[in-house]
Design goal:
Elements: H1 4-11, H2 22-34, H3 39-42, H4 51-63, E1 79-83, H5 89-98, H6 105-115, E2 124-128, H7 134-140, E3 149-152, H8 159-169, H9 175-184, E4 209-212, H10 218-232, H11 235-243, H12 248-261, H13 268-281, H14 288-295, H15 337-344, E5 353-356, E6 364-367, H16 370-375
Antiparallel strand pairs: 1-2, 3-4, 5-6
Length: 379
C-alpha cells in the first residue's frame, strides 16, 4: 500500500511523458537531490510544492533546460489569445498547441507548475507567438493586457460614419480627434505621395476589423488603416487600374461609387464597366451616391438620403455627377476589395445605363440606350 507522499509524487506524472513510470520518476527525484542549486537555471520553485514534487520537476526541467530558451512553437505570427476566467493552464496550453505557439505542452506545463505560474495565469488578452520561449510565455501569461477594443468598418462607409462608430467601440479618443487625424494626412504612409495635396483620406481607410487598446491614438489607427489598404491593394490591382487609364486616386474614387451603387457582388464589374464607358464617351456619370454624398447628413441622422428628388439632383457641389462631367474630385466612401477589383478588372460591356430591378432583389437592369433605360423603369 502506498503512503500519501508517494501518491503525491506520482501525481506529477501528469506533467511528464506517460511512458515514465513512478519508479523512474522517483529515481529522477533522487538524482535531482544531488544536483546543485537549480534556481540559477530554473528560477525559484513554487513554495507550495512539496519536496517530492519539487525534486521531480527540477530533475525533469534540468534535463530539458536548453529547450526552455528555444522557440516554443513554429508560428512566428503574433496571435491575440484570450484566457477565460477560471480556465486551467492545461486548457490554455491545449489551445496554444492548436495555434502552433506551443509544440511541447508537457514541458511548458512542467515549467509553469515548478514556478507556480500555473496558478497565476490571469484572465485577459495576450499577444503570443511561437517565437517566444517557454520562459517568455510563462512571463507573458502573468500580465494580461486590457481587453482589445474592436472596431469593424463596413464597406462603403464615409469618414464621418467611421468617426461616429468610435465611441460605441470604446475607442480611447473622440470622433473629432479621429476626423482631424484622417484629414491631416500626417501619416508616414507611402500612399500619401499618390494622393492630391491638401485632401482628406476618404477612400483609403480600408474597411476591415481593427483592434485598439486603451492607449491607442487616432493617428495610429489611421496609419493602420492605410497600411491595410496598401497591403490589400496588390500590384496586380494597381496594374489593372493603369490598364483602365486610371491613377490610384481616380480608381479609388470610381470604386467608392461602385461600392455605394452595388448590392449584388457579381454585378460590381458590370457596374464599373458602365461608368468607365460613360467616362470614355464624356457622358456625365449621373450617379445617385455622389448626390447623396454632397447632401451630407440628413435631419434623421442618416448620411445617405434615399428617395432623391429632382431638386436634389441639381445640388451645387463638385461631387454631384448629375451636373458635372467626369469623376468627382475625391472618393465619396471607403470601398472594399470587391469594388476595387471591379474597377481594376471590369466586365466588357456595351452598357451606358443601369437602374434598380423591380423585383426587390438588389440587382440592376442594364441598357445600351436611353430608350431601353426608360423601358426598364418600374411600372
Amino acid at each position: 500500500m502506498s503512503n500519501d507522499r508517494s501518491r503525491r509524487g506520482c501525481t506529477c506524472l501528469a506533467l511528464l511523458p506517460a511512458s515514465i513510470a513512478c519508479g523512474l520518476l522517483a529515481g529522477a527525484f533522487l538524482i535531482g537531490l544531488a544536483l546543485p542549486d537549480v534556481s540559477t537555471t530554473l528560477g525559484e520553485a513554487d513554495k507550495a510544492l512539496d519536496p517530492i514534487q519539487r525534486g521531480l520537476l527540477a530533475a525533469y526541467l534540468t534535463v530539458r533546460h536548453a529547450a526552455l530558451d528555444q522557440p516554443a512553437g513554429g508560428s512566428d505570427v503574433p496571435v491575440e489569445v484570450e484566457v477565460l476566467p477560471g480556465e486551467s493552464a492545461s486548457g490554455v496550453l491545449a489551445r496554444l498547441r492548436d495555434l502552433d505557439i506551443v509544440r511541447d505542452p508537457l514541458l511548458v506545463r512542467a515549467y509553469l507548475r515548478y514556478r507556480g505560474i500555473d496558478r497565476a495565469i490571469q484572465a485577459g488578452h495576450y499577444q503570443l507567438s511561437g517565437t517566444m520561449s517557454p520562459r517568455e510565455l510563462a512571463q507573458s501569461l502573468q500580465h494580461a493586457s486590457a481587453p482589445a477594443i474592436v472596431l469593424t468598418i463596413p464597406e462603403g462607409w464615409r469618414l464621418e460614419q467611421i468617426a461616429e462608430a468610435l465611441p460605441a467601440s470604446g475607442a480611447p479618443f473622440t470622433a473629432e480627434a479621429f476626423l482631424d487625424a484622417a484629414r491631416a494626412g500626417t501619416s508616414a504612409s507611402p500612399l500619401l505621395s499618390e494622393l492630391p495635396v491638401a485632401t482628406n483620406l476618404e477612400g483609403f481607410l480600408f474597411p476591415d476589423t481593427y483592434h485598439m487598446t486603451g492607449e491607442s491614438q487616432p493617428l495610429e489607427l489611421v496609419a493602420t488603416m492605410l497600411e491595410t489598404f496598401d497591403r490589400r491593394v496588390t500590384p496586380d490591382l494597381r496594374e489593372g487600374f493603369r490598364a483602365e487609364g486610371l491613377s490610384l486616386y481616380q480608381a479609388v474614387t470610381l470604386a467608392s461609387i461602385v461600392e455605394r451603387e452595388a448590392v449584388v457582388t457579381e454585378e460590381r464589374p458590370l457596374i464599373a464597366s458602365v461608368f468607365l464607358n460613360r467616362l470614355a464617351q464624356g457622358i456625365k456619370l449621373d450617379a445617385d451616391p455622389t448626390v447623396q454624398y454632397a447632401l451630407g447628413r440628413q435631419t434623421d441622422g442618416s448620411w445617405w438620403k434615399t428617395g432623391l428628388t429632382l431638386d436634389d439632383l441639381q445640388v451645387d457641389s463638385p461631387h454631384n455627377t448629375y451636373v458635372r462631367t467626369g469623376l468627382p474630385p475625391s472618393p465619396i466612401a471607403n470601398p472594399g476589395l470587391e469594388s476595387l477589383r471591379a474597377v481594376a478588372f471590369p466586365a466588357s460591356s456595351p452598357y451606358l445605363y443601369f437602374r434598380a430591378a423591380c423585383d426587390g432583389s438588389g440587382r440592376h437592369a442594364f441598357a445600351e440606350t436611353l430608350d431601353q433605360h426608360l423601358l426598364n423603369a418600374c411600372p
